[in-house]
Amino acid sequence: MEIQETTPISISVANRRLVKRLLLITVAMFGFGFAMVPIYDVLCAITGLNGKTGGRVAAVESSAVDEARTITVEFIASLNVGAPWEFTPQVNRMQVHPGQYYQTHYLARNLTGHALVGQAIPSVAPGLAAQHFQKIECFCFTRQIFQPEEGREMPVVFRIDPNLPPDVHTVTLSYTFFRVDDAGG
Amino acid sequence: MTTSRIAQAGAIATGGALLAWSAVAHADFALNMTPGATAISHEVYGLHMLIFWICVVIGVVVFGVMFWSIYHHRKSRGVVPAQFHESTLIEILWTVVPMLILIIMAVPATKTLIRMADARDAELTIKVTGYQWRWHYQYLNENLGFFSTLSTPQAQIHNDAAKGEHYLLEVDQRLVVPVGKKIRVLTTASDVIHSWWVPALALKKDAIPGFINESWTLIDKPGIYRGQCAELCGKDHGFMPIVVEAVPEAEFQQWVATMKASKLNTLTASGGKTL
Amino acid sequence: MSTAAAPALDDHDHDHHAGPSPGLIRWLVTTNHKDIGTLYLLFSLTMFFVGGAMALVIRAELFQPGLQIVNPHFFNQMTTLHALVMIFGAVMPAFVGLANWLLPMMIGAPDMALPRMNNWSFWIMPFAFTLLLSTLFQAGGGPAGGWTLYPPLALQTGNAFPFVILAIHMMGISSIMGAINVIATILNLRAPGMTLMKMPLFVWTWLITAFLLIAVMPVLAGSVTMLLTDKYFGTSFFNAGGGGDPVMFQHIFWFFGHPEVYIMILPAFGVVSQIIPTFARKPLFGYASMVYATSSIAFLSFIVWGHHMFTVGMPLAGELFYMYATMLIAVPTGVKVFNWVSTMWRGAMTFETPMLFAIAFVILFTIGGFSGLMLAIAPADFQYQDTYFVVAHFHYVLVPGAVFSIMAAVYYWLPKWTGHMYNERLGKIHFWLSVVGVNVLFFPQHFLGLAGMPRRIPDYALQFTEFNMISTVGAFLFGFSQLLFLYNVVQTIRGGAKATDQVWEGAHGLEWTLPSPPPYHTFTTAPEVK
Ligand code: HEM
Ligand SMILES: [Cu+2]
Ligand SMILES: [Cu+2]
Q1: Matching SUPFAM superfamilies, A to Z (chain A) (predicted)?
Q2: A interface test, pick of C15, C251, C525 with most A CB neighbours within 10 Å
Q3: What pLDDT score does B261 carry?
């Protein structure tokens, strides 16, 4: 090479080896950026970051119902931009005992004259309660198809895990309805 | 000559900055953070001032030493440069002492942060939804919800009319809340991320589509508290203010009753939203 | 388009003992570190004026309440592009230019380790920025979602979007190639006797910066790639409706973003650590602790990114962690400042232009550090976040911080590079106008932020008027003062008093043993370092 060192060959070999290693780091860090996605999801599941609650079925468990404790559960509904539904909880709030299963509904109506596909995204506040909010049936587990003008009740079956931290008295379950067919925003 | 100029300019600059900042200490809203209208906002203001003064003291000491040196250790005064270039003791000292100062700051900051995170046992929950470019408020304990939009006329914005007192900080429908009650605020958004900020409440929380964020406030004094969206949300990000009006409980109940009956209420009788 | 430089590379000049190629071709095909350093610095200067013009548009609009000059959409394009141009076009390339010129001369190497890659990493840049700036002329305009590119807002960008992403990828590739080159040069080409702990601090800070670049530029590339696929290929990394999370973008972005701010300041630390000992005529105080402090800052910079996200609704434990970690950064930063002051202590100082800029750096960067410490306090940050207080903070660390250090470096080494002394009187005038301008420009922004003015808004409430006016006056003063700098540099390149080899009485280091200007190829035989 062009470098007039005492051992020119060893330098170009060293350069090549170093460049290879550094490129390896580069590629690894590019991958790390993507790896942050699943890492973040795991962290969310553990910490309830962002109030993310599983869009997944919780295993049915039977454990003692804690009659002594009453938790207020609030239900709220939001629509994302470009989601032409009417979307509301059947009830705004419920008093529940941890450990007991309850059922409630959300009502949704397609306001357009054509079929729509929607997906409800759950979120729980306070975030720490998210992992203790267990759903065994929920319209948020799958995409929901609506015929033109169709309206229907969509059930949620849930319970509050008795391990909910004792200082939590109110839990809010929120669903945001997103339009997910291609015409959606 | 140059050096004395530097020293002079430095002295003037430091003095000026100090003067300006001591005016800050007099809680002028236009110059400093507002102490606000809640216990939390007072705590935050206290923290802000504490850390500010610690920084001022450190700054005066460090810059003082530096300017002293700049003045006295000039070549033009015929000094012979020393050649020392390390001192383990002093280097350990100026690592450890700042650590201790940081701990002094961290203790009250931690306490306040813990209190801010505690939204338990609120008497009222309000859901705040950010839209491009207005806010929607929903009172979960009532069947009440409405939009709140900038009310400053376009003519004022485009300089075709004189600007009013609350230019850009006024809305058609204020968020009316009772004083003396703990209010839980749930923020979310319908399109992009917004951030709901009212300085007097020391409350700023991002409104994120698909997620709800929890925070709370408890306002002591009746009054009108103005804020703005604090996360870039597109073209009219600068034009979606927040106006909170804190009123006594009875007045609040009356307002709720009127609002519920009004056609501004975007929630149907069944609680259904007609957006 | 981006491959236009490729054919030129094939007839690359392998014989480094020849002089430069004739004419303009020289600049296209050059693999000489001095030529490439010059190209980088000129490119950076150009971008500094482009980004500066955008800043003046912003400040002009904010001179008074009401919309006067631009509409809100264009205003947002200006803030977005101003930041991208200044960060990736002005500050980063300036430091790469300095690295190119100085690293080989400081460590006694004949050139950079990978000269051909060096040519590439420079020539990618003009194409990247042509692409980026061309979006301004597209229907729908340029990117307007802020340089932080937060989704979902960034996904509302029109046709400019893929151009912006591609431009960012190109800048990233250029930076990574530059960083690899720097590391290879420093690790493999040091002259005999130049042990790591004998390297000048500028070399040390660049070595650490280069590792930061390699660690985080690919993460930025990953995050913008995900944005691209979310927009065009139906993925849902950041779309809540598809099971993603917009906040996750912020985590990935700031994992890049916080180290990025140190990428822009560590080489500045290096520059100042070269200049202060020269003009104090006294060795740098605490050389070893400077190296350790720089390394610990670099390490800490990977674990504090959450301080940009205190308001997104993290769990309490997360906020506490990021608050404590961020506060910790103040310790090594403080060590550096104390070391600089101790270097001046009992020196024999003179105050030529580079020293003036270096002293201003120490003071004003420290003020930016103080406001950083305030921002680190999470409960208080809820009030500061996304206000002009943050704007004041990062401009104090970036303008009288990074930019002043670059100017100090240019005044300091320009006589070496060109063989001519710059006009000292003009340099001092430039300094004083700049230092006054920058403070009039940014100091009032602290007050604006505390009083409640959000950042990134084209219009504001009436109580913010006075300080905005003052700030705008400062902006124009600062902006136009930079023409003096341009004039001074151009004049020095063209001629002027002959510079000696050592240039500065107190200068030490290998580069000062070379003639001024140094011959096209230097240290073709390695110098002996005692
Ligand atoms: C003592 C050291 C520092 C501390 C403790 C610190 C702390 C912070 C914090 C907490 C924020 C977030 C503020 C907010 O958005 O609410 C911030 C923002 C920022 N800092 Fe620093 N900082 C320090 C040094 C630096 C340096 C050296 C630079 C660059 C040279 C820098 C550049 C920035 C930038 C560009 C932003 C704003 C990013 C954006 O939102 O666009 N900071 N800093
Ligand atoms: Cu906004
Ligand atoms: Cu940061």
Answers
A1: Ctag/Cox11
A2: C251
A3: 87
